[in-house]
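Supplementary Note 2. Why include the ligand at all?

Several targets in our set were suspected to adopt different conformations when bound, so apo predictions alone were not considered sufficient. For every target with a known small-molecule partner we therefore ran a joint prediction. The input for glutamine is given below.
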Amino acid sequence: MRVFTPPPVTRLPRVGTTIFTVMSQLAAELGAVNTGQGFPDFEPPERLCELVALHLRSGHNQYAPMAGILPLRQAIAAKVARHYGRKACPDAEITVTCGGTEALASSIQALVHPGDEVVLFEPAYDSYEPIVELCGGVVRRVPLSRPGFAIDWQRFADAITPRTRLVIVNTPHNPSGACLSVADLDRLAEVLRDTTAYVLADEVYEHMVFDGARHVSLNAHPELASRSIVASSFGKTYHATGWKIGYCVAPAALTVELRKVHQFVTFAIATPLQYAIADFMTEHPEWEDELSAFYSVKRDRLIDLLLPSRLVLVPARATYFQLVDYSAISDLPDAEFALQLIRTIGVATIPVSPFCERAPPGERLVRLCFAKQDATLVAAAERLVRL
Ligand code: PMP
Ligand code: GLN
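The joint prediction is reproduced in token form.
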């Protein structure tokens, strides 16, 4: 028998296993406190779980419509109208996806042709670039200014060329918690006004914004919305990252292209989850409004617990992440420091450098996730203050 020896082939030569998977696996192996990968260690709302069970048992177990069940698209339209004043058409402008991840991947694949340029702001969430590369696109990275992780508008304008097909923004921003303001969106609109570039807005942390601030969505900016796909994730909003369900809002013509990809990537999303979320959104619209207060208590708890430590906290204005500067403790690069932490004190963190092609030299930041029960935050902090 001749055995086929596959030739070495990779479409993604620079990609390994994601840092989130690496750190969670290590945390499990070592029994470490997992404040690395972003997921809650508590349950979704009880009523939502009941609704999933109800719909599982009431015959909602076959393929959902490709775009998502109508009641869920209607609930999303109502929510987008309520929060951002945008009237999105459930039939033509809203698509339910397999989490934010598929929303982003299908959007990029729908828009990017070989040779197109895609502008990302760095640190950039790690899933954007590989999908652009699979499309044959070319990534242009624009570093966010330190210490506040704001957009440097001159550098951004300089990165735009006639070949720019897409700009990806992430607000609230993982890992820094920075948020775009109304003035930022106006600047973005101004720079793009005479271009043919689209925008992909990753807004999965839209309901976790602190200190009285409000999320500024591209959904609330008609000029930008007309050239944008806005992506969000129910996994984040309902403490259910394992359900992998999210959505995109985009003008009809963009939605047509997005769905051409979506229908062949996933086709449709878990039916009972869609019915359950649709019901829950209608029964409990207040959930989204209360989430920021819920997470700001956790952020403040972590800040208090880390007060005696030698870590310096970068102000966390949104998301469920806290960046900490460890330069008073170690001079190791962040990835090495994160490995040292998990091996020596048993705390999993996420280094920032995997979000960057070139992190600023000397930057010493790791990310902690505070979507955790109090006991987890206490356990992580007890170990971190010993450093
Ligand atoms: N974008 C960002 C910035 C994220 O942090 C995440 C996930 N944590 C996603 C997208 C993906 O969302 P989902 O888990 O719904 O696929
Ligand atoms: N978005 C999550 C984080 O930033 C990770 C999701 C994943 O592992 N794909 O931690």
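The radius of gyration is 21 Å. The chain has 14 helices and 13 strands. Comparable summaries for the other entries are listed in the accompanying table.
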